[in-house]
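Human:
Care to share another protein and its fold?

Assistant:
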Amino acid sequence: MSLQGVLPFVLDFLPRKPIEIEVSRAQLTGDAGLLPIRQFDEAICLTQRFADALTDARTGDVRHSNRSLVRQRIYGILADYEDQNDHDALRSDPAFKLVCDRQPDGRDLASQPTLSRFENAVTIADLKRLRDVLCDQFLDAFAAPPSRITLDIDAFDDPAHGRQQLIAFHGYYEQYQYLPIAITCAETDTVALVGLRHGTCAAFLGADDDLRYLARRIRERFPDVEIVVRGDSGFGVPLMYDVCAELGLTHTFGLAMNARLKAASDALLAQAQQQFDETGEKQRLFLALEYQADAWPQPRQVVVKCEVHEQGTNRRAVSTNRPGWTVNPAAVYDEYAERGESENRNKELKRELAADRLSDHRFLANFFRLHLHTAALNLLVRLRRATARPLPTIDPSGEIPVEAFADRQRRGWFNRRRREDPLGEGFATTWRQHLIKAAAEITVSARRVVVKLSASWPYAEEYRRISQAVLAWPRTS
């Protein structure tokens, strides 16, 4: 909407001076923080490789390249513009033009109909190539060959928006939906693989093939690496145990408590309750046993946690093939519990980067949109890790890991880390507040483009620090 016909006008809530609202003739943007992100993207070639994986069947005068369309959507998702409709207003924004390799005073970017045609033109072959690109970028995130890679596998609900292909009503979530799957890497926080599935599928549907693909790709790059797989009880089924054995993967999966497991751990829970009553301190006791469900062809190694604290009792079980599970069952369970950090990535993907807005009608188009949102998350995750400040020290000698400290001391360390480096610990909303949502005036001359930030902006120092860090980042050859 043009403001020329409605401005200027005056607000009179100040008693002595009126407030006059006028139109600035300068090119202004509210998303100047996308520019250092684009600089980092240039170094790691994330959006370029994403776009290069797509076929382009268009002929004649193509006004908007695949690369420009991909960047328009991915940077829009980062800046909280998750829908195609948003770009009808953003297509003339000077910051968005710059991140899409266009001059601020040049022609406008793509409109919603163009973006819709672009997403709906995606083929199955394109999606397979995007899977390869996503895996390549996950492997590229390792600065050196790792000795261990931990894959956290999870499913999350994705509510439907109208009559979309392959949505279904899910009784547990009480909604029409898709049920995507995501596999994240605990060492790098990046998403290694995503899949879009119909709304009532089992949580583990297709996970065996996904693990076969990832294990092959990982070992092609890092032949000697140990691959560890973790997942909740939705993946604790014989099919997943068998594929882990087939591929030589170490696994720990959640296991739903049942009457037999409760009976086997009742005595341990009573012991934990007694110790809590005597000391008033939280108690965690562990039981290691072999257990065979009726549907299992053989017994499995199971660890049961019995916990008592001020809020009551808590029993959880996991099945594992980790060595030493009988010697130190607490370590087996605690390592499984660390997969909670991967659930933060799913939260970022679904809520903060709006992967729950898969609102195209066509299933393949929505699968493509899921890859767009995942690429936005991986770009943010890699930037976050590349520009994070050094971690604060909790033990001057450096001999005691953070995980070994008491709960209160460990929580204090995490809180201090968040205060000292809000962007290094920040989710997408924090990055938007501290960096992306930066107002700026952009001017173009014959020799340069000048971006002028506000001198009173409270996060200008963070903008400078992030920009210097990405300028120093080595470029991918």
About this structure: The chain has a mean pLDDT of 92. The CA atoms of residues 29 and 93 lie 6 Å apart.
